[in-house]
Amino acid sequence: MSKQTTEMLKGVLEGIVLAILSSRPAYGYEITAWLREQGFTDIAEGTVYALLVRVEQRGLVDVEKVPSEKGPPRKVYSLNAQGHDYLSEFWRTWSFLTDRLSQLQPGEK
Amino acid sequence: MSKQTTEMLKGVLEGIVLAILSSRPAYGYEITAWLREQGFTDIAEGTVYALLVRVEQRGLVDVEKVPSEKGPPRKVYSLNAQGHDYLSEFWRTWSFLTDRLSQLQPGEK
DNA sequence: CCCCGCTATTCAGTGTTACTATCTACTGGT
DNA sequence: ACCAGTAGATAGTAACACTGAATAGCGGGG
């Protein structure tokens, strides 16, 4: 992945993952696979796990261990009330950014 | 500024500054003032100067020293050919992100 | 004259984040 | 016993925006 993409993901990736969790609970491996399908081809697995640990420690998600048929138990994350608040704030910030950038973007040709 | 905004700015602020420079040459103090008018109320001055040094070192901008009526000489930056290429790449990456995020954003109520 | 305010730039140190690379652990099939 | 696939954890690194301070030039007021 380009360095540009990497830097732009900082802060944004967290919002993306929380947005996914707002629609349904999910676990790390599943989220990584979904991101790759969506075109984030080179998201490292470790990145998603580390991100999930961070949001858990900040109390934005609830965690439940669910035994898996294959492999170790899954840690299924779901967005809690505080997480929803945080996600709302994320969308506000995101809208602010997209507004400013759309003004700067040259007319498409 | 919220920590959220700070983190989301990473990588994006650079694109914003380059976009400004693509429309006209400018110097650091001026860019900072403009950003503040646009609602980036708490952009630290040091941040913009550090960013300009980085893009200069990567050869994306040309620099010219221009004496100022008040205060020390200004370093006026302008986007060069390589900078334009880089900026195009930035817009592609930005479009990719906005596409993915617009899919995730809940229908506005 | 000297200090203050404004303009303008620079720099050292800090925290957060995504990356790389590696490691552990559990299951099923050969 | 071994291996592939699933699932998660962790140590170390690089990049970037922030804080806070310092530097420097010019004008005007006391």
Tell me what the structure shows.
2 copies of one chain form a homodimer. Chain A is of the alpha+beta class. The first copy, chain A, is built from 5 helices and 3 strands. Chain A has a 3-stranded antiparallel β-sheet with strand order 1-3-2. In chain A, α2 crosses α5 (81-104) and α3 packs across α4. The first copy, chain A, starts with a helix and ends in a 5-residue tail after the last helix. The first copy, chain A, binds a DNA duplex (30 and 30 nucleotides) through residues 1, 3, 6-7, 9-11, 13-14, 27-30, 42-47, 49-54, 68-75.
Structural class of chain A: alpha+beta
What is the helix tally of chain A? Answer: 5
Largest interface, per-chain counts? A-B, 33 and 32 residues
The Cα radius of gyration of chain A reads 16 Å
User: SSE string of chain A, helix = H, strand = E?
Assistant: HHEHHEEH
Task: Set out the fold topology.
The structure is a homodimer of 109-residue chains.
Chain A: H1 3-9, H2 12-23, E1 26-27, H3 28-37, H4 45-57, E2 61-66, E3 74-79, H5 81-104
Antiparallel strand pairs in A: 1-3, 2-3
Helix pairs in contact in A: 2-5, 3-4
Chain A binds a DNA duplex (30 and 30 nucleotides) through helix 1, helix 3 and helix 4.
